[in-house]
Protein backbone atom coordinates (compact mmCIF):
# COMPACT_ATOMS: atom_id res chain seq x y z
CA UNK A 1 0.00 0.00 0.00
CA UNK A 2 2.07 2.97 -1.26
CA UNK A 3 1.16 6.57 -0.41
CA UNK A 4 2.45 10.13 -0.59
CA UNK A 5 1.20 13.07 1.47
CA UNK A 6 2.52 16.32 0.04
CA UNK A 7 1.39 18.39 3.02
CA UNK A 8 3.45 16.26 5.42
CA UNK A 9 6.24 15.55 2.99
CA UNK A 10 5.70 11.88 3.78
CA UNK A 11 6.25 8.90 1.47
CA UNK A 12 5.51 5.36 2.64
CA UNK A 13 4.76 1.81 1.61
CA UNK A 14 2.99 -0.72 3.81
CA UNK A 15 3.50 -4.41 3.18
CA UNK A 16 0.44 -6.18 4.55
CA UNK A 17 -0.43 -9.87 4.65
CA UNK A 18 -3.60 -11.73 5.58
CA UNK A 19 -3.43 -15.41 6.54
CA UNK A 20 -6.70 -16.87 7.82
CA UNK A 21 -5.04 -19.82 9.59
CA UNK A 22 -2.69 -17.68 11.66
CA UNK A 23 -4.87 -17.58 14.82
CA UNK A 24 -4.48 -21.36 15.16
CA UNK A 25 -0.72 -20.70 15.34
CA UNK A 26 -1.20 -17.97 17.93
CA UNK A 27 -0.42 -15.32 15.30
CA UNK A 28 -2.57 -12.39 14.13
CA UNK A 29 -4.49 -12.86 10.88
CA UNK A 30 -3.14 -9.61 9.49
CA UNK A 31 0.48 -8.52 9.81
CA UNK A 32 2.19 -5.46 8.41
CA UNK A 33 5.49 -3.64 8.02
CA UNK A 34 5.76 0.04 7.05
CA UNK A 35 8.69 1.53 5.16
CA UNK A 36 9.03 5.31 5.36
CA UNK A 37 11.14 7.12 2.75
CA UNK A 38 12.56 10.60 2.32
CA UNK A 39 10.04 12.26 0.01
CA UNK A 40 12.73 14.34 -1.72
CA UNK A 41 15.26 11.59 -2.46
CA UNK A 42 13.38 8.30 -2.03
CA UNK A 43 15.95 7.15 0.54
CA UNK A 44 14.64 4.62 3.07
CA UNK A 45 14.67 6.33 6.47
CA UNK A 46 12.63 3.99 8.65
CA UNK A 47 11.26 0.47 8.89
CA UNK A 48 8.60 0.01 11.53
CA UNK A 49 6.26 -2.72 12.74
CA UNK A 50 2.96 -1.91 11.07
CA UNK A 51 0.32 -4.07 12.73
CA UNK A 52 -0.07 -1.97 15.87
CA UNK A 53 0.25 1.26 13.89
CA UNK A 54 -2.48 -0.02 11.56
CA UNK A 55 -4.67 -0.75 14.57
CA UNK A 56 -4.10 2.76 15.92
CA UNK A 57 -4.88 4.55 12.66
CA UNK A 58 -7.90 2.34 12.02
CA UNK A 59 -9.23 2.94 15.52
CA UNK A 60 -8.66 6.66 15.06
CA UNK A 61 -10.60 6.57 11.79
CA UNK A 62 -13.47 4.77 13.53
CA UNK A 63 -13.53 7.46 16.19
CA UNK A 64 -13.55 10.14 13.51
CA UNK A 65 -16.45 8.50 11.68
CA UNK A 66 -18.42 8.16 14.92
CA UNK A 67 -17.77 11.81 15.77
CA UNK A 68 -19.30 13.00 12.50
CA UNK A 69 -21.95 10.35 11.86
CA UNK A 70 -23.28 9.05 15.19
CA UNK A 71 -25.79 10.92 17.33
CA UNK A 72 -24.16 13.32 19.77
CA UNK A 73 -25.92 11.59 22.66
CA UNK A 74 -24.78 8.10 21.59
CA UNK A 75 -23.48 6.30 24.68
CA UNK A 76 -24.09 2.55 24.24
CA UNK A 77 -21.56 0.72 22.07
CA UNK A 78 -21.37 -2.81 20.68
CA UNK A 79 -18.32 -4.58 19.29
CA UNK A 80 -18.50 -7.66 17.09
CA UNK A 81 -15.01 -9.08 17.35
CA UNK A 82 -12.57 -8.80 20.26
CA UNK A 83 -9.14 -8.63 18.65
CA UNK A 84 -6.52 -5.87 18.45
CA UNK A 85 -8.75 -3.74 16.24
CA UNK A 86 -11.57 -3.85 18.78
CA UNK A 87 -9.32 -2.34 21.45
CA UNK A 88 -8.29 0.72 19.45
CA UNK A 89 -11.81 1.17 18.11
CA UNK A 90 -13.21 1.32 21.62
CA UNK A 91 -10.42 3.61 22.82
CA UNK A 92 -11.25 6.04 20.00
CA UNK A 93 -15.01 5.88 20.64
CA UNK A 94 -14.41 6.81 24.25
CA UNK A 95 -12.55 9.92 23.05
CA UNK A 96 -15.39 11.27 20.90
CA UNK A 97 -18.54 10.13 22.74
CA UNK A 98 -19.49 9.73 26.40
CA UNK A 99 -19.66 5.94 26.24
CA UNK A 100 -21.24 4.54 29.39
CA UNK A 101 -21.70 0.88 28.47
CA UNK A 102 -20.18 -1.55 26.00
CA UNK A 103 -21.24 -5.02 24.89
CA UNK A 104 -18.80 -7.26 23.06
CA UNK A 105 -19.31 -10.53 21.20
CA UNK A 106 -16.69 -12.81 19.72
CA UNK A 107 -17.12 -16.31 18.37
CA UNK A 108 -14.41 -17.23 20.91
CA UNK A 109 -16.27 -16.62 24.17
CA UNK A 110 -13.15 -16.59 26.34
CA UNK A 111 -11.61 -13.93 24.08
CA UNK A 112 -14.62 -11.66 24.55
CA UNK A 113 -14.56 -12.19 28.31
CA UNK A 114 -10.86 -11.32 28.53
CA UNK A 115 -11.44 -8.24 26.37
CA UNK A 116 -14.28 -7.07 28.61
CA UNK A 117 -12.17 -7.39 31.76
CA UNK A 118 -9.16 -5.64 30.21
CA UNK A 119 -11.02 -2.72 28.64
CA UNK A 120 -13.29 -2.09 31.61
CA UNK A 121 -10.21 -1.67 33.76
CA UNK A 122 -8.42 0.41 31.12
CA UNK A 123 -11.26 2.82 30.34
CA UNK A 124 -13.25 2.81 33.56
CA UNK A 125 -16.56 2.10 31.81
CA UNK A 126 -18.86 -0.92 31.92
CA UNK A 127 -17.80 -3.55 29.37
CA UNK A 128 -19.46 -6.95 29.33
CA UNK A 129 -19.20 -9.97 27.05
CA UNK A 130 -22.31 -11.41 25.42
CA UNK A 131 -23.21 -15.00 24.67
CA UNK A 132 -24.75 -14.07 21.31
CA UNK A 133 -24.33 -11.38 18.69
CA UNK A 134 -28.00 -10.35 18.89
CA UNK A 135 -27.59 -9.56 22.57
CA UNK A 136 -24.64 -7.30 21.74
CA UNK A 137 -26.21 -5.43 18.83
CA UNK A 138 -29.73 -4.91 20.15
CA UNK A 139 -30.22 -1.48 21.73
CA UNK A 140 -26.75 -0.19 20.81
CA UNK A 141 -26.18 3.36 19.56
CA UNK A 142 -22.84 2.59 17.89
CA UNK A 143 -22.05 -0.84 16.43
CA UNK A 144 -18.50 -1.70 15.37
CA UNK A 145 -17.75 -4.80 13.31
CA UNK A 146 -14.13 -5.93 13.45
CA UNK A 147 -14.43 -9.64 12.71
CA UNK A 148 -12.85 -11.77 10.00
CA UNK A 149 -16.20 -13.34 9.10
CA UNK A 150 -16.90 -14.12 5.45
CA UNK A 151 -20.66 -13.85 5.90
CA UNK A 152 -23.00 -11.39 7.67
CA UNK A 153 -22.46 -11.38 11.41
CA UNK A 154 -25.91 -10.14 12.50
CA UNK A 155 -29.46 -9.60 11.26
CA UNK A 156 -30.10 -6.04 10.09
CA UNK A 157 -33.49 -6.09 11.81
CA UNK A 158 -31.62 -5.78 15.12
CA UNK A 159 -30.43 -2.28 14.24
CA UNK A 160 -32.61 0.38 15.82
CA UNK A 161 -33.40 3.84 14.38
CA UNK A 162 -30.63 6.34 15.07
CA UNK A 163 -27.83 3.76 15.26
CA UNK A 164 -24.43 4.23 13.64
CA UNK A 165 -22.36 1.33 12.26
CA UNK A 166 -18.60 1.30 11.77
CA UNK A 167 -17.76 -1.66 9.52
CA UNK A 168 -14.02 -2.38 9.62
CA UNK A 169 -13.75 -6.15 9.38
CA UNK A 170 -13.93 -7.82 5.99
CA UNK A 171 -12.25 -6.04 3.09
CA UNK A 172 -12.62 -8.62 0.32
CA UNK A 173 -14.90 -8.07 -2.72
CA UNK A 174 -16.64 -11.45 -2.54
CA UNK A 175 -17.23 -11.56 1.23
CA UNK A 176 -19.21 -9.43 3.64
CA UNK A 177 -19.88 -8.81 7.32
CA UNK A 178 -23.14 -6.91 6.79
CA UNK A 179 -26.40 -8.25 5.41
CA UNK A 180 -28.56 -6.59 2.77
CA UNK A 181 -31.06 -5.30 5.35
CA UNK A 182 -28.33 -3.31 7.07
CA UNK A 183 -27.08 -1.80 3.82
CA UNK A 184 -30.56 -0.89 2.57
CA UNK A 185 -31.59 0.93 5.74
CA UNK A 186 -28.37 2.94 6.05
CA UNK A 187 -26.97 6.25 4.84
CA UNK A 188 -23.64 4.93 3.54
CA UNK A 189 -20.25 6.63 3.71
CA UNK A 190 -16.76 5.29 2.96
CA UNK A 191 -13.13 6.29 3.46
CA UNK A 192 -12.44 6.14 -0.29
CA UNK A 193 -15.10 5.62 -2.94
CA UNK A 194 -12.56 4.15 -5.37
CA UNK A 195 -11.19 1.71 -2.80
CA UNK A 196 -14.65 0.71 -1.55
CA UNK A 197 -15.85 -0.05 -5.07
CA UNK A 198 -12.80 -2.28 -5.57
CA UNK A 199 -12.72 -4.13 -2.24
CA UNK A 200 -15.81 -3.70 -0.04
CA UNK A 201 -17.88 -6.84 -0.46
CA UNK A 202 -20.49 -5.39 1.92
CA UNK A 203 -21.33 -2.97 -0.88
CA UNK A 204 -20.09 -4.75 -4.00
CA UNK A 205 -22.20 -7.88 -3.48
CA UNK A 206 -25.54 -6.01 -3.30
CA UNK A 207 -24.40 -3.82 -6.24
CA UNK A 208 -23.72 -6.93 -8.34
CA UNK A 209 -27.07 -8.36 -7.26
CA UNK A 210 -28.69 -5.07 -8.36
CA UNK A 211 -30.14 -4.50 -4.91
CA UNK A 212 -28.42 -1.12 -4.62
CA UNK A 213 -26.61 1.23 -6.98
CA UNK A 214 -23.21 2.85 -6.64
CA UNK A 215 -25.06 6.05 -5.85
CA UNK A 216 -26.08 4.51 -2.50
CA UNK A 217 -22.60 5.55 -1.36
CA UNK A 218 -23.45 9.12 -0.37
CA UNK A 219 -19.92 10.35 0.18
CA UNK A 220 -16.47 9.93 1.67
CA UNK A 221 -15.86 10.73 5.32
CA UNK A 222 -13.53 13.55 4.27
CA UNK A 223 -16.38 15.19 2.36
CA UNK A 224 -18.55 15.02 5.47
CA UNK A 225 -15.80 16.55 7.61
CA UNK A 226 -15.26 19.55 5.32
CA UNK A 227 -19.02 20.00 4.91
CA UNK A 228 -19.33 19.34 1.18
CA UNK A 229 -21.60 16.34 1.81
CA UNK A 230 -24.25 16.02 4.55
CA UNK A 231 -23.82 13.15 7.00
CA UNK A 232 -26.57 12.36 9.48
CA UNK A 233 -29.74 14.34 8.71
CA UNK A 234 -31.89 13.28 11.68
CA UNK A 235 -31.68 11.42 14.97
CA UNK A 236 -33.58 8.53 13.40
CA UNK A 237 -31.14 8.01 10.52
CA UNK A 238 -29.12 4.81 10.48
CA UNK A 239 -25.63 5.69 9.29
CA UNK A 240 -22.97 3.30 8.04
CA UNK A 241 -19.26 3.94 7.60
CA UNK A 242 -17.49 1.24 5.61
CA UNK A 243 -13.69 1.29 5.61
CA UNK A 244 -11.30 -0.90 3.66
CA UNK A 245 -8.23 1.08 4.68
CA UNK A 246 -6.13 3.31 2.41
CA UNK A 247 -2.42 3.98 2.26
CA UNK A 248 -2.55 7.67 3.19
CA UNK A 249 -3.83 6.71 6.66
CA UNK A 250 -0.73 4.57 7.22
CA UNK A 251 1.49 7.27 5.73
CA UNK A 252 0.19 9.92 8.13
CA UNK A 253 0.47 7.63 11.15
CA UNK A 254 3.97 6.44 10.20
CA UNK A 255 5.18 9.99 9.63
CA UNK A 256 3.94 11.06 13.06
CA UNK A 257 5.44 7.98 14.75
CA UNK A 258 8.79 8.62 13.07
CA UNK A 259 8.82 12.29 14.09
CA UNK A 260 7.90 11.47 17.70
CA UNK A 261 10.49 8.70 17.87
CA UNK A 262 13.26 11.00 16.67
CA UNK A 263 12.24 13.68 19.17
CA UNK A 264 12.32 11.12 21.99
CA UNK A 265 15.59 9.53 20.86
CA UNK A 266 13.93 6.17 20.28
CA UNK A 267 14.59 3.57 17.62
CA UNK A 268 17.75 1.87 16.43
CA UNK A 269 19.88 3.14 13.55
CA UNK A 270 21.11 0.44 11.20
CA UNK A 271 23.13 0.31 8.00
CA UNK A 272 21.89 -1.85 5.14
CA UNK A 273 24.68 -3.40 3.05
Beta content comes to: 15-25%
- CATH fold type of the domain at 71-244: Rossmann fold
Structure class: alpha/beta
Number of strands: 12
Amino- and carboxy-terminal Cα gap: 25 Å
**Rg calculated over all Cα atoms:** 19 Å
In helices, the fraction of residues equals 25-40%
Strand order of the main beta sheet, please? 7-6-5-8-9-12-10-11
Number of helices: 9
- CATH class categorisation of the domain at 71-244: Alpha Beta
The CATH homology group name of the domain at 71-244: NAD(P)-binding Rossmann-like Domain
The CATH architecture of the domain at 71-244 would be 3-Layer(aba) Sandwich
Principal-axes geometry comes out as globular
**Major sheet:** 8 strands, parallel
Averaged pLDDT? 94
What are the key terms here?
single chain; 273 residues; alpha/beta; Rossmann fold; eight-stranded parallel β-sheet; four-stranded antiparallel β-sheet; 12 strands; 35% helix; globular
Topology:
Layout: E1 2-5, E2 10-18, E3 30-38, E4 44-49, H1 51-69, E5 76-80, H2 84-96, E6 101-105, H3 109-123, E7 126-129, H4 133-137, E8 142-145, E9 164-167, H5 180-184, E10 186-190, H6 193-199, H7 201-208, E11 217-220, H8 221-226, E12 238-242, H9 247-264
Parallel strand pairs: 5-6, 5-8, 6-7, 8-9, 9-12, 10-11, 10-12
Antiparallel strand pairs: 1-2, 2-3, 3-4
Helix pairs in contact: 1-2, 1-9
Could you characterize the architecture of this molecule?
With 273 residues, the protein is an alpha/beta fold. It has a domain at 71-244: 3-Layer(aba) Sandwich (Rossmann fold), CATH 3.40.50. Helix content is 35%, strand content 23%. It contains nine helices and twelve strands. The strands form two sheets. The chain has an eight-stranded parallel beta sheet with strand order 7-6-5-8-9-12-10-11. The protein has a four-stranded antiparallel beta sheet with strand order 1-2-3-4. A hairpin with a 4-residue loop joins strand 1 (2-5) and strand 2. The chain is globular and about 60 Å long. 42% of the residues are buried. The model has no long low-confidence stretch (mean pLDDT 94).
